[in-house]
Description:
Chain A has helices at 4-14, 21-33, 35-60, 71-92.
Amino acid sequence: MLSCKEVCHFVSESLDQQLPWYTRLRVRLHLFICKACRRMVKQMALLQTAAWFYGATDEQTSTEENDTLSENARSRILKQLQQANSGSADHNA
Amino acid sequence: MVKVCAMHNNPNKNADVESDPARWLQEYGDVLFGYALKRLHHTAQAEDAVQETLLAALKARASYAGRASEKTWLVGILKHKIIDLIRKQARETTVDDIHALSDLSTENSIDELFDERGHWIQPPQDWGNPEKMLHNQQFMEFFRRCLERLKPAHAQIFSLKELAGQTIEEICNELDVTATNCSVMLYRARMSLRRCLEIQLADENSGEL
């Protein structure tokens, strides 16, 4: 009998590729008697769908203000660029 | 816009040498950051990726022929930087992950869910109707928050699989890791996400949020 932990791993794997028939059978047997794992299966599937939803809304809202560089990051990057720029200028000279 | 083009036709001009990187940051900083954040789900890493991109662009400036638009050129560099970053992290974390999975005594949030015989210590709770959850803004906000809290490599592999829709083979090839490592990382990502959401939902129901 598979443990709940093993079932979790196989269920995750089954979302990415087809499992061998005997593994599927063992997983199903476990799920038949384990309510906790049946919930986990539903939730794992929900994660996948939630990711699609999230991706879809992400596209629409990608230009919103939360995807902007913070002032801190901006000035830090600018500093690095200026250093690199003057470094290469010195090198060229 | 005309001015921008004029500057590009004159790469040796001193003012150009000094102003270009700053102008890239000014004009494309947010676009690049948004692109990186969507793929990395990690603010600090997305910022680093922007910095690496602009530094690389600075070095490669002479070879930029102006065939592509500046933005396309910069996003192209950024894509490579993101893949490099994910690849590096996939290599760094995978050894730990495999180890953690086989070592039950390890102090890891996922293994704490199970006892030594692999049975649930903290069995999954009822989340209610999944259909409803997806249309619940609060749930999607929790989802976003939990995705950000994942270990970066886990968040990245999860988003390559579930957001970018790549197959497991494509991901393994791109990250240059074995199929087993890929599947372990995805397992860990999903279990951490699931657990994180469960905690958030429980907090909400108990009125703590």
